[in-house]
Structures are given as structure tokens and as C-alpha cells.
From TrEMBL, chain A:
Keywords: ATP-binding, Cell membrane, Hydrolase, Membrane, Nucleotide-binding, Transmembrane, Transmembrane helix. It is found in: Cell membrane. Residues 407-427 have a biased composition (Gly residues). The lineage of its organism: Bacteria, Bacillati, Bacillota, Bacilli, Lactobacillales. This is Macrolide export ATP-binding/permease protein MacB.
TrEMBL record, chain B:
Signal peptide: none annotated. GO terms for molecular function: ATP binding; ATP hydrolysis activity; transmembrane transporter activity. Belongs to the ABC transporter superfamily. It holds the Pfam family ABC_tran. Its EC number is 3.6.3.-. The gene is laaJ. CDD domains: ABC_MJ0796_LolCDE_FtsE. This is ABC transporter ATP-binding protein. It is an enzyme of class 3 (hydrolase). It comes from Latilactobacillus sakei (Lactobacillus sakei).
Length: 489, 220
């Protein structure tokens, strides 16, 4: 153990050289630390994101099959213009929705029922462009109600509310506790125009047969950031005319029971998507209904994190290799400078392995100091690097997801209004996860760049491997040393 | 104790042999002096006796066993102590630590090595305060004395010294010679000195003169 003492005596005697080595090693370790922090943070973020974003699977009518059915029911010889083919979109059974929701891996689910109604005790917001410029001069309120009703199970899981496109400004959002109630959440412009506030009641009339009147209680007011002129198409009502109710009330207004237009199931883990789809398809009639999986948020984030992980890995390995080479060169020079000392030790009968051991111990002692310094510096460097890298990966992810975003505004149940369905609103689209916004929401600050004992252990292992390799490379010189030539020659 | 048997040595080629078939015998309790002109090969013989080099032909035997068989590192570690002209002390240590390091490397079995080393250093005129100073702060004579104490403390039965007084003044030279005589006569070590100084050679029990590529024992 004598060489431990010698190592300590040497590094404490040669303070300047020791300091220089500490600086070099600290710089190397800071870069490795930064790389390790980013890599570990990227892995952790992907794992955490799995839980946070999950994957969504939308159950809705199979539009392709519905169109095929419509075409096959039309006689090929028919030339009559009076018998236009009609597209019949089947509604999803609520019982099936509940069965699917009971499958393992489902974090939560939501249902959507879209219908329309006419304002009775209030005035709907009318948009001149919509009423004047509609197709074939149609006024939107003539073919369907002037209020768009969106029946849901839970407003909080709607993407428009999750990504803050819509915000609850007063009162509360609807939850599963509002099922079988007449509670409603209205838009702030509609509330302002009719001088409504939380707790007030409004009356609407169904557009279906019987035109039954309903009294609804306002429990919340939301602010829609979507402007009427920018996003509305022909036949679309002003977004401020959208009312959120429980799906049970929407069903009553629509004149159906135990049915929904679509359902969205959020999986707790995106990797369970395939197994879930397999199990869910056994429950539904796949000829009538389709299951559309959307794990694009997870995939987009995973991709960006993988890019970052790969970048961090490259940093770690590049710095490790460069560090080994740099340290090896320094140690080789150091060995040359210390040939005399080594010759003395060899002349005393010291084993070459112990001389190499002394070098290793010296470097290890300096490594401990460098580790402490790198622990402090690495966090700052990691933060700076990750900001730089995250800004580039987020930009690319946003671009990617914007071009490949599934569902979008034309999701199941959205778009045109066949079979008397209200046009304009987009329940399917609303319930699609906001990939773009999610990707944006993962910022550098979201990466957990805190140093933990495992990171320090990894850094220590890297540091030790580097010095071990460097000493090993330099020890070729020691093995060749001949004490006679050094001390006498 | 230590025997050079049919030892031949050359550097570049056999034609330029330094010496051929040298046979010498060194015994415990004697102080040997190897003398000769510069470049004759005195130090080369010493390096072979010290286990720092191997003969080109022949062998060096310690107690009848070839050094090659013992292993040069093992031989240096257990059986021989070397004193160099340039002292060859470890510069980052104190005088005391130099002695203690050598004792640790050679597995000295002294019960209290620190106390023993200080006692030996004091004996050669290095007081405890000086002993704890960095060795580079000592004078040449003091450093040589530290080097001799290092050899003394290692308990090796053979001590070889290459021009140990080469850098010293007359007073220091006399003190160092006295120390070597003590090592040989009191501690019963086999002490071999290489020197070109007649005064030093004269104080040795046996002198070998290297001349015309052969060693001749000089009768005193």
C-alpha cells in the first residue's frame, strides 16, 4: 500500500501539475456529465411522457363501410334525381363503449354526441358571413338549430380544453358527475350577449321531431380562442354558439338513448396500443365501426427525445474518446518527465505494476476532485446544451407533427352534416390529441437535469475508465523503462 | 556471497568487448573498491552486480544462485542496495520519507521503521528537523548521506555504490567512507564501491583494478 502514500505525496508536492490535471479532467467530465444528464433526462422524459400523454383510440362509425353500403343500395340503373342516396352513419352503443373502457390499460375515456338545437330564451350569435355566404344561399339556422350541442362525458379531457384553445373562465367544466343533468357550459361571447352568468338558466328547443323544449342550467362559461371568421366554413355556426352538455342530455335532444357518435379512450401506456386494439376489435362490429389509434403525440415526443438521446450519446462517447486520448498524452508526457523517479523506484526493486498502480491512484485522487467540480459545472453545461438541442428538436417535431397530424379537424363525426347531423362542430377533431401543442409543451426546462447519485456513479465510471485507459496507454513507456539507462546512462 | 562467473560484456558488438571471462568473488564483511580509468567499464560491472543489467556472457551468482534465476527485480528488492553518484533520491519526499519508502519497498521488518530511520539519519548528521525537510533542500553531502542511510536501512546484505564521493568535498568524503566501512565491518555487509579516487580506494579492504579489459586484485 506504500504506493498510495507515494501517490498522495507526489500530487501534493507537484501542486501546479495536479491543478492542471484537475482542470483538464474537469473539462472532460463536464462535457460527459452534460451528455449523461441530457441522455438520462431524455430517457426519463420519454418514460414520463408515456404516462402523461398516453395514446388515444377513437371509436366511431366506419365511414368507408358506410359509403360502400350507400353506393350498393343505389340501383345502378336508377336515373331518378329525386331518389338521392343517403349516407347512414351508425351510432356507437354506449354498452360497447363501457366494455372497451373496462379493458386493461385504459386511463380514461370520453364520449361525444353532436346535435343542434334552437335558442329559445336567448339569442344565438349570428354571423353575417355565414348567413350570407352559405352554399346555395342557405342560412345556417334554417337547415339545423342555431346552437350546436356537444354532449360529452368529461370536458377536461377534450383536446381543446387540454391545449388551452378553450378555457373555462367562470364556473366549472362538466364531469361525469353531470351525467343525467341539464347542466350546460356556454361560451363567453354568448353569455355576454345574453347577459348570462353561472347559475342562470336558458331554454332551448330540439330540432328533432316534437321540438321539445329543455331548460338548461349554466354551470360554467368558457372562452373560445377560435375566431369565427378565420376557422368557419360554410354551414358552420359561430363557435360561440357551441354549448357543452352531458352526453345524456345531448342524446335526449337528438332523440336517441344509450348511443354516442364516437368515443375516445386514452391509454395509460402508448406501448399497449396494439394489445388494446386487438381486444377492443373483439367487442365491436368492425364492419360498422372503426377504431382509429392516435399515439402521434407519444411518437413525436419519443422521436424528439430519441434525437436528443442520440445527440447526448454522441457527446458522451466523443468526449470520452477524446478525453482518453488527451489524458493519455498528458500522462505519457508525465511519465517521460518522471522517468528519473521511476528509475529510482525500479532500482529499489519496486515492481512495474506498482509504479503503474501509483500513477492510477494519483489520477484517481485527482478524478475525485474533478468529479466534484464536474458535478457542479455539468448541470449548467447540460442546461445550456439541452436548451440549444431542445429548440432544434422541438422545431422539427412541430413541423413533422403538423404535416402528419391524424384526425385533425376532419375527424370522425366532423365535417359535413349528412343525415341531418349538425355541421360545423368537430367532435372527432376536438377529441384528437393536440400533437403539435404537446410537442411544443415539452421544453428544455421540462427536462429533469438534476444530478442524482446514479448520474454521478455513471460519471465516475466513465472517468475511471478514461483514466484507466489513459494510464494503460502510457504504461507501455513504464514497462520499457530500464533503470540502468535512466540512472547511470 | 556474490560471484561474477565468466562474465563478458560489450555494448555494440562482441568485437568491442569491455572485458571477457571475468571471475570475481565478493564476500560479506568486506569493503571492495573497483578502480580503473574512466570508460573502462567499472560502472558497467557495478550495474551487473546490482542487478540493473545482465552480462552478455557468463553470470552473476548470489549465494550460488544466478541473478537471472532469482529475478533482477526480486534481487534488487531483497538482496542489494544501491548508492548512486547523483544520490537518486525521490525529489518530492523528505529525507525521512525517502528512507521509509525504500524500507517499505524492500519489506523491511523493523518494528518501528520511522524511529529507526530517524536514528540512522541522526547518526550520519541529519537531525530530525532536517530529516523532515524536502530532500532537495539538503546539501549534496547531506543528500549522499541520506542515500547511504537508505541503503543501510534496507537490510540488504549487498551494498553497491557508484562513485559515492564523486560530488563531495574531502570532509564529506571521509565521513562517507567511514559509513561504508561501518556497513562492511559492523553490519557484515558486502560493500562494493566503484571509484576513481585513490584515497577512497585506499580505504577499501580489497581493490580490483580494471585494466586492459581484465580485473586484477591490487595487493595493499
Amino acid at each position: 500500500m506504500n504506493f498510495f502514500k507515494r501517490a498522495w505525496q507526489n500530487i501534493s508536492f507537484k501542486k501546479g501539475r495536479s491543478l492542471l490535471l484537475v482542470i483538464v479532467m474537469t473539462v472532460i467530465l463536464v462535457f460527459i456529465m452534460a451528455g449523461l444528464l441530457i441522455r438520462n433526462a431524455a430517457v426519463t422524459t420519454v418514460n414520463n411522457t408515456k404516462q402523461q400523454v398516453g395514446a388515444s383510440v377513437t371509436l366511431s362509425a366506419n365511414r368507408d363501410q358506410a359509403f360502400k353500403k350507400m353506393r350498393s343500395s343505389t340501383p345502378p340503373t336508377s336515373t331518378s334525381k329525386t331518389k338521392k342516396p343517403s349516407l347512414s352513419m351508425p351510432s356507437v352503443s354506449l354498452a360497447n363503449v363501457k366494455k372497451i373502457a373496462a379493458l386493461s390499460g385504459v386511463a380514461n375515456y370520453n364520449v361525444s354526441v353532436a346535435t343542434s338545437a334552437n335558442a329559445s330564451s336567448i339569442d344565438a350569435i349570428s354571423t353575417s358571413s355565414a348567413s350570407n355566404n352559405g352554399p346555395m344561399g342557405m342560412s345556417q339556422s334554417t337547415s339545423s338549430g342555431d346552437l350546436q350541442i356537444t354532449g360529452v362525458l368529461n370536458m377536461k379531457t377534450l383536446s381543446d380544453f387540454k391545449d388551452n384553445t378553450n378555457k373555462i373562465t367562470k364556473g366549472r367544466a362538466l364531469t361525469s358527475a353531470d351525467v343525467n343533468t341539464n347542466n350546460v357550459v356556454i361560451e363567453s361571447e354568448l353569455a355576454k350577449q345574453n347577459d348570462l352568468s353561472v347559475g342562470d338558466t336558458i331554454k332551448i328547443k330540439a330540432t328533432t321531431t316534437g321540438k321539445k323544449a329543455y331548460t338548461l342550467k349554466v354551470v360554467g362559461i368558457y372562452k373560445a380562442s377560435q375566431s369565427s371568421s378565420s376557422s368557419m366554413g360554410p354551414q358552420q355556426s359561430d363557435p360561440s354558439n357551441t354549448l357543452y352538455t352531458a352526453y345524456t342530455l345531448a342524446n335526449q335532444i337528438k332523440g336517441q338513448t344509450n348511443k354516442v357518435d364516437s368515443a375516445v379512450f386514452t391509454l395509460s401506456n402508448p406501448t399497449q396500443k396494439t394489445a388494446f386494439l386487438k381486444a377492443a376489435k373483439k367487442i365491436i362490429n368492425t364492419k360498422k365501426f372503426s377504431l382509429t389509434a392516435d399515439d402521434s403525440t407519444y411518437q413525436a415526443l419519443k422521436q424528439s427525445m430519441q434525437k436528443m438521446e442520440s445527440f447526448a450519446n454522441k457527446i458522451v462517447w466523443l468526449v470520452a474518446i477524446a478525453g482518453t486520448v488527451i489524458l493519455a498524452l498528458i500522462i505519457i508526457l508525465m511519465v517521460r518527465e518522471r522517468r528519473y523517479e521511476m528509475g529510482v523506484l525500479l532500482s529499489l526493486g519496486e515492481k512495474r505494476t506498482k509504479i503503474i498502480g501509483q500513477l492510477l491512484v494519483e489520477m484517481f485522487m485527482l478524478l475525485i476532485v474533478s468529479l466534484a467540480l464536474a458535478g457542479i459545472g455539468g448541470q449548467f453545461a447540460g442546461q445550456a446544451l439541452s436548451k440549444q438541442v431542445m429548440s432544434s428538436v422541438t422545431t422539427s417535431t412541430t413541423t413533422d407533427s403538423a404535416t402528419t397530424q391524424p384526425g385533425g379537424n376532419g375527424g370522425p363525426g366532423g365535417g359535413q352534416a349528412p343525415s341531418g347531423q349538425p355541421g360545423g362542430n368537430r367532435p372527432g377533431g376536438q377529441m384528437t390529441q393536440g400533437t403539435q401543442n404537446k410537442a411544443k409543451s415539452i421544453k428544455a426546462s421540462d427536462l429533469n437535469l438534476k444530478i442524482n447519485p446514479l448520474t454521478l456513479l455513471q460519471l465516475g465510471a466513465f472517468g475511471f475508465t478514461i483514466i484507466a485507459f489513459a494510464v494503460l496507454l502510457a504504461s507501455a513507456n513504464i514497462l520499457r523503462l530500464e533503470p540502468r539507462k535512466i540512472l547511470i546512462g | 556471497m556474490l560471484t561474477a562467473k565468466d562474465v563478458s560484456y560489450w555494448y555494440d558488438s562482441e568485437e568491442n568487448t569491455l572485458y571477457k571471462d571475468v571471475n570475481l568473488n565478493f564476500e560479506a564483511g568486506q569493503l571492495y573498491g573497483i578502480i580503473g580509468s574512466s570508460g573502462a567499464g567499472k560502472t558497467t560491472l557495478l550495474t551487473m552486480l546490482a542487478g540493473l543489467d545482465k552480462p552478455r556472457k557468463g553470470e552473476i551468482l548470489y549465494e550460488g544462485t544466478s541473478l537471472q534465476k532469482i529475478g533482477l527485480t526480486q534481487y534488487r528488492n531483497r538482496y542489494v542496495s544501491i548508492v548512486f553518484q547523483a544520490y537518486n533520491l525521490l525529489p518530492y519526499m523528505s529525507a525521512l520519507d525517502n528512507v521509509l519508502t525504500a524500507m517499505a519497498i524492500t519489506h523491511s521488518e523493523r518494528e518501528n521503521p520511522s524511529e529507526f530511520a530517524l536514528e540512522m539519519l541522526t547518526k550520519v548528521g541529519i537531525n530530525p528537523d532536517m530529516a523532515r525537510k524536502n530532500v532537495q533542500k539538503l546539501s549534496g553531502g547531506q543528500q549522499q548521506r541520506v542515500a547511504i542511510v537508505r541503503a543501510m536501512c534496507c537490510d540488504a546484505p549487498v551494498v553497491v555504490a557508484d562513485e559515492p564521493t564523486g560530488n563531495l568535498d574531502d570532509t564529506n568524503t571521509r565521513e562517507i567512507i567511514k559509513l561504508f566501512q561501518e556497513l562492511a565491518h559492523e553490519q557484515q555487509k558486502c560493500v562494493i564501491l566503484v571509484t576513481h579516487e585513490k584515497e577512497v580506494a585506499a580505504s577499501c579492504d580489497v581493490q580490483y583494478l580494471l585494466q586492459h579489459k581484465t580485473f586484477e586484485e591490487v595487493t595493499l
